[in-house]
C-alpha cells in the first residue's frame, strides 16, 4: 500500500484570500485536500474553484461557532443568539454537552446534517469531515459526527492522534510552550482518548497549529500503525482580504502566518521528508506493553484496588495539602479536594478498571452523581468524627476513606459504568 500525505487546507470559503491561496497551493504546490465551510460568504466561489482542481479531496469543515447557521436559527436556541448568529465557543459547547446533552445533541445533529446536505446541493462529494475550532472533538459532538459520517458514507473523520513526543523529537522550536499549543494539544488528545475512535490517518501537527513553516517539515515521523498522515494548514493571500475586513469575522485570516503557511504548501520538496513506519519512543512502547498486560492478567477487582488506591491516596494528599499547608477549614478543604480530584478518578476508573465503551457524557454525569452522594456522606461523616468523636480532621478523613472506597466501587460497578446484558 502507498502511504499518502494529505495536505488539507481548512476554512475553504471563508474569504477570497483563502480561496485564492488554496487554488494557488493546488496549482503550484502540494495541496491535495481542503475542508469547505458551506455557510460562509465565499463558499459558492470555493466550490466553483474546486471544479478546476480535479484531484482535490473536498471535505466538510463543520461550523458551530461563527456567523450564521445553514438551518433555521429559530430551531437552534442553544447554538444561536437573538441575532441569528452562532453564540458559543469551544468551552461553552463543552459545558452545554455536559449539562444539556440531549438538547445540544439534537441541534448539533440538525445543523451538521443541514451543512452536509448543503454541500451535496452544491455538487460536492464529501471525502472527509472535520470542524472549525475543533469542536467535533467534544465527545457528544464527536458521536454525532460519527453517526452522520456513516449515514452519508463519508470516508474519514479527523482525529487528533498525534504523538507529541515524535513531533518534539524532530522540531527544535518550543513555541508551543508559550502560545497555547501544548494546552490545546493536551485537551484535544484527552478528548480523543475518551472518544475511543481509531483512525488509520495520523494527524500532524496540533502543537504548531496555524504556525506551520517549512522548518516544521525537516522530518516528520509517522508511527507504523497508520496508513496516511494529514497535515492541517491554513493558507491565505492576505493582501486580497486586508481591504475587505468587513467581510472577515476571523482576524487570523489576515495574519502573516497565513502567508507563511501558503509558502510552506508551495515547497514541493517537503513530501519526501515524511518517514512512515516510525517507532514510538521507548517509554511510549513500554506503556502500551504494560497496558496490554494490565488488562490481560489483572482482574477487575484487583484493578479497582490498585487504581482506587492511587485515586484515594491522591485525593487524601490534596486534602492534607489544603488543610495543613493552605490552612483551609476542613469542610472547605474537602469541597475543593473533590472538585480537583473527581474527574481524574472518573477517567481512570472508566478506562483502567471497567474498560467502559458506553456514552461518555452519560457515564460522567452518573459518576458525578455518585461522587456528589459520597461527598455528602463524607461531609456528615467527617463532621461527626471531628466534632463528636474529637478526632483530628487529617485522621478522621483517613478513617472515612476506608468506607468510601468500598462504597464507590459498588456504585461505579453497578451504576456509573454498568454494562447492560442484552437478553437473547
List keywords for this structure.
single chain; 14 helices; alpha/beta; 424 residues; 9 strands; seven-stranded parallel beta sheet
Walk me through this protein's architecture.
This protein is α/β, with parallel strands linked by helices and 424 residues long. The protein has 2 domains: 4-279, Alpha-Beta Barrel (TIM Barrel); 298-416, no CATH class. 52% of the residues lie in helices and 10% in strands. It contains 14 helices and 9 strands. It has helices at residues 16-28, 43-50, 90-99, 101-121, 139-151, 164-170, 181-195, 238-241, 256-265, 282-297, 300-325, 330-353, 360-388, 393-416, and strands at residues 4-12, 33-36, 57-62, 128-131, 156-157, 201-204, 220-223, 228-233, 274-278. A 7-stranded parallel beta sheet has the order 5-4-3-2-1-8-6. β1, α1 and β2 (33-36) form a beta-alpha-beta unit. α4 (101-121) packs parallel to α5 and α12 (330-353) runs antiparallel to α13. 37% of the residues are buried. The model has no long low-confidence stretch (mean pLDDT 93).
The strand order across the widest sheet is 5-4-3-2-1-8-6
C-alpha Rg (nearest Å): 25 Å
Under the CATH scheme, which class of the largest domain? Alpha Beta
Helix/strand order: EHEHEHHEHEHHEEEHHEHHHHH
Quote the distance from N terminus to C terminus.
Answer: 42 Å
Overall geometry comes to: globular
Number of strand elements = 9
CATH architectural grouping of the largest domain: Alpha-Beta Barrel
Given helix and strand content, the structural type is alpha/beta
Q: Specify the CATH homologous superfamily of the largest domain.
A: Glycoside hydrolase/deacetylase
Spans with pLDDT under 50 lasting ≥5 residues? Answer: none
Mean pLDDT: 93
Estimated helix fraction: 40-55%
CATH topology category name of the largest domain: TIM Barrel
Q: How many domains in all?
A: 2
Amino acid at each position: 500500500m502507498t502511504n499518502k500525505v494529505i495536505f488539507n487546507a481548512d476554512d475553504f470559503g471563508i474569504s477570497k484570500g483563502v480561496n485564492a491561496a488554496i487554488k494557488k497551493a493546488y496549482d503550484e504546490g502540494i495541496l491535495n485536500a481542503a475542508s469547505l465551510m458551506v455557510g460562509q460568504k465565499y463558499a459558492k466561489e470555493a466550490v466553483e474553484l474546486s471544479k478546476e482542481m480535479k484531484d482535490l479531496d473536498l471535505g466538510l469543515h463543520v461550523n458551530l461557532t461563527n456567523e450564521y447557521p445553514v438551518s433555521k436559527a429559530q430551531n437552534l436556541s442553544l447554538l444561536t443568539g437573538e441575532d441569528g448568529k452562532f453564540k458559543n465557543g469551544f468551552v461553552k459547547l463543552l459545558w452545554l454537552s455536559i449539562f444539556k446533552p440531549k438538547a445540544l445533541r439534537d441541534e448539533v445533529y440538525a445543523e451538521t446534517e443541514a451543512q452536509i446536505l448543503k454541500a451535496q446541493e452544491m455538487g460536492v462529494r464529501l471525502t472527509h469531515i472535520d470542524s472549525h475550532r475543533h469542536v467535533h472533538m467534544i465527545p457528544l459532538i464527536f458521536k454525532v459526527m460519527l453517526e452522520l459520517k456513516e449515514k452519508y458514507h463519508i470516508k474519514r473523520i479527523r482525529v487528533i492522534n498525534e504523538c507529541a513526543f515524535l513531533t518534539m523529537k524532530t522540531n527544535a522550536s518550543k513555541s508551543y510552550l508559550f502560545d497555547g499549543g501544548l494546552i490545546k494539544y493536551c485537551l484535544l488528545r484527552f478528548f480523543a482518548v475518551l472518544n475511543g475512535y481509531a483512525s488509520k490517518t495520523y494527524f500532524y501537527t496540533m502543537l504548531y497549529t496555524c504556525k506551520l513553516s517549512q522548518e516544521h517539515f525537516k522530518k516528520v515521523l509517522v508511527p507504523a500503525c497508520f496508513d496516511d498522515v494529514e497535515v492541517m494548514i491554513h493558507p491565505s493571500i492576505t493582501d486580497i482580504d486586508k481591504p475587505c475586513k468587513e467581510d472577515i469575522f476571523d482576524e487570523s485570516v489576515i495574519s502573516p502566518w497565513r502567508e507563511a503557511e501558503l509558502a510552506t504548501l508551495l515547497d514541493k520538496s517537503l513530501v519526501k521528508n515524511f518517514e512512515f513506519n516510525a517507532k514510538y519512543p521507548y517509554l511510549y512502547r513500554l506503556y502500551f506493553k504494560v497496558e496490554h498486560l494490565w488488562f490481560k492478567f489483572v482482574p477487575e477487582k484487583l484493578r479497582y484496588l490498585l487504581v482506587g488506591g492511587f485515586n484515594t491516596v491522591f485525593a487524601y494528599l490534596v486534602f492534607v495539602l489544603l488543610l495543613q499547608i493552605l490552612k483551609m477549614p476542613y469542610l472547605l478543604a474537602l469541597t475543593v479536594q473533590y472538585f480537583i480530584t473527581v474527574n481524574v478518578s472518573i477517567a481512570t476508573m472508566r478506562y483502567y478498571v471497567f474498560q467502559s465503551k458506553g456514552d461518555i457524557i452519560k457515564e460522567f454525569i452518573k459518576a458525578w452523581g455518585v461522587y456528589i452522594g459520597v461527598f455528602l456522606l463524607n461531609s456528615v461523616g467527617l463532621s461527626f468524627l471531628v466534632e463528636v468523636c474529637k478526632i483530628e480532621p487529617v485522621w478522621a478523613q483517613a478513617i472515612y476513606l476506608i468506607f468510601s472506597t468500598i462504597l464507590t466501587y459498588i456504585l461505579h460497578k453497578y451504576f456509573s459504568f454498568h454494562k447492560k446484558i442484552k437478553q437473547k
